[in-house]
Amino acid sequence: MPHLEPFVRAKALLIVMRQLLGRLNSVLSTTCINTRGLRSNFSSVESYLLQSSPDLLALCETNLSSAVSSCDLSVDGYLPLIRKDSNSHMLGLGIYIRKNSPICRETRFESTDYSFMCFRLAPLHSITFLFVLYRSPLSQDCTLFDIISDKI
After folding, report:
1. Burial class (CB within 10 angstroms; exposed 0-12, middle 13-18, buried 19+) of 60
2. In whole angstroms, what separates CA 111 from the centre of its chain?
3. pLDDT tens column, 133-151
4. What is the spatial distance between Cα 53 and Cα 31, in angstroms, rounded to a whole number?
5. Could you give the count of Cα atoms lying within 13 Å of 46 in the half-sphere of its Cβ?
């Protein structure tokens, strides 16, 4: 993809990620939700997890800081919330992984300077890497996609 313009390159990466996620959902169930504040919407998130039981729930705009304990946001049947907090208002990522799911975080593919997380999903006979991120729909900056592309 190096010959493509950055915006076109970012769109191509998104299309590939959507195709992979579609194939992945036939083996593992994954969901992504914009919470617009996890503390204020925790009961809805908890209800969704308990009723739908996805293997992985990715949350964006968690609006959490280090002052908020993940223990206060635990859900039966799920590992403790995996977080990437942000200093900016209404940003931050959170991931719930169902216990005993073949999913683990791969920090070696992450960057401390950018808000995304990487997970290795290893259902039977395959391994897939899932990058979880939030990018404003109004943003024209493709740097994040370039960083992820360089990691893979």
Report:
1. buried
2. 14
3. 887 778 788 888 888 888 7
4. 10
5. 12
